[in-house]
């Protein structure tokens, strides 16, 4: 929910980003799922998949680091899944049936632990979780007909610590 003076700008940007990243590939679970959006009064609301374990920041506060080999592999394998979301943003080749340019090159602009959401896995193991990238409010995209070096853009903000 956005309810600040810049609410409309960030809301529109986030909704637009989710629509640009729309995919029919339901196997890719690296980006939090977008279900829709609406405005009510002065608030702007984005409906997303529920992350029952909160953010990566919350997860790190509550969960001790893995020490068993299989837990270490599971944890890092799941966390590295977030790189798939970044790859989708950076080089988004849209499938047939979607409007717009064939390739969008994007920037998230605010990757940090509080923008990575955590969902429970299927077992009771605390490392059996899904990490998903969220908060596309500062992201932006450029159209291109081919990928390659020389595609750049200016920084539009984000959390300077990251």
Can you characterise this structure?
This protein has 162 residues and is of the alpha+beta class. It has four helices and seven strands; from the N terminus they run H-E-E-H-H-H-E-E-E-E-E. The chain has a three-stranded antiparallel β-sheet with strand order 3-4-7. The chain has a two-stranded antiparallel ribbon with strand order 1-2. It has a two-stranded antiparallel ribbon with strand order 5-6. It starts with 6 loop residues before the first helix and ends in an 18-residue tail after the last strand. The model is unreliable at 151-155 (pLDDT under 50).
What secondary-structure arrangement, pairings included, does this model have?
Elements: H1 7-20, E1 34-40, E2 43-48, H2 56-62, H3 69-79, H4 82-90, E3 92-93, E4 103-107, E5 116-120, E6 129-133, E7 140-144
Which keywords apply here?
162 residues; alpha+beta; two-stranded antiparallel ribbon; 4 helices; 7 strands; 22% strand
Summarize the structure.
With about 160 residues, the protein is α+β, with helices and mostly antiparallel strands. About 25% of the residues lie in helices and about 20% in strands.
Major sheet attributes: 3 strands, antiparallel
Poorly predicted regions? 151-155
Going across the biggest sheet, name each strand in turn: 3-4-7
Number of strands: 7
**Assembly classification:** single chain
